[in-house]
Amino acid sequence: MAQFIRYTEHGGPEVLTPVEGPVPDPPEGGVVVEVRAAGVNPVDSKIRSGRRGTRDFSRPQGLGADAAGVVVAVADGVDGVRPGDEVIVHGASGAYASHVVATPDQLVPKPAELSFEQGAALGIPAGTAYQVLRSLGLREGETLLLHAGSGGVGQAAIQFARTFGARVVATASPANHDRLRELGAVPVAYGPGLVDRLREAAPDGYDVALDGAGTDEAIEASLELVPDRDRVATIVRMADAADLGIRTWSGAIPSTMGPEEVRLRAEGVAEAARLAAEGRFEVEISGRYPLAEAADAQRESEDGHVRGKLVLVP
Ligand SMILES: NC(=O)c1ccc[n+]([C@@H]2O[C@H](COP(=O)([O-])OP(=O)(O)OC[C@H]3O[C@@H](n4cnc5c(N)ncnc54)[C@H](OP(=O)(O)O)[C@@H]3O)[C@@H](O)[C@H]2O)c1
């Protein structure tokens, strides 16, 4: 039997229920992956609560886009993937499960250097960080202002920016400043006086800003410190971006990404895996929950202070 986390109505974490069912068959053109770990992303809670995406509740809904595991079944005619392959899964549907269905373009080979938990942590965070920084054109020698540097997206963004040759000044609570330094960023505490501290941290100014916090403070500091609004993005305040004249992208329904951004998100996952295999990209797992305790994992995520990633373990 397989296990799945399902919900039948929008609501708090308590609507998430573990259920059992048969192991799925691979659909035409697809594979089935036995999940060893699934990534918990803030968007999962937003979808569950009804704040993002729409759901057809004529049948129970699954949750979760990211996982890592072992391929156990492959549909006829699918080339390049075999049972036994260890893979990272991104952009899937229903990854909070013991088994998830995916298409080959949602798979990246898992390097031996990464654990399954670390592999499960890459999808949305690495894909988003890479896509946004590439879409904003961050280049060698430039300075990035990054809000929420210690979360999943933030840690990935620092590391990609450093590989691009950029400097990074990132906000986090003081308890996480050592972690930001380890990753190569200059840490700055958010809160009153933020703009002054940011000016001091980068006296020559900022070229690009990425808001992963969604606070007024983060948006206002970005607008004040980055001269070109075309190089300021929020991945949280999607609805405000057009009025502010800044950039935004969303991977959740309704997606606001064009084909190039979709391509960059997939490339970001593969690139993070490649760099990790070379020891140039770290993935911090700060908490793991049994699959059946997905509701507790989402409660911790919703507190808004996850460092690195939370994962579910079937
Ligand atoms: N648009 C998209 O396609 C897209 C894709 C991915 C993520 N997102 C969104 O981006 C946000 C970040 O995602 P994530 O996966 O990185 O979340 P996460 O892993 O849960 O990280 C949250 C981080 O926010 C920091 N934080 C909390 N309050 C803050 C504040 N006032 N100022 C600055 N930082 C603060 C926390 O750091 P401290 O503990 O140090 O306070 C924590 O490390 C979420 O809202 C998520 O839904 C959007």
TrEMBL record:
Its EC number is 1.-.-.-. Homotetramer. InterPro entries: ADH-like_N, ER, GroES-like_sf, NAD(P)-bd_dom_sf, Quin_OxRdtase/zeta-crystal_CS, Zinc-ADH_QOR/CCCR. PANTHER family: QUINONE OXIDOREDUCTASE. Its main location: cytoplasm. The keyword Nucleus does not apply. It is found in: Cytoplasm. GO terms for molecular function: oxidoreductase activity. It comes from the Bacteria. The keyword Disulfide bond does not apply. It comes from Agromyces indicus. SMART domains: PKS_ER. Residues 11-312 form the Enoyl reductase (ER) domain. Keywords: Cytoplasm, NADP, Oxidoreductase, RNA-binding. This is NADP-dependent oxidoreductase.
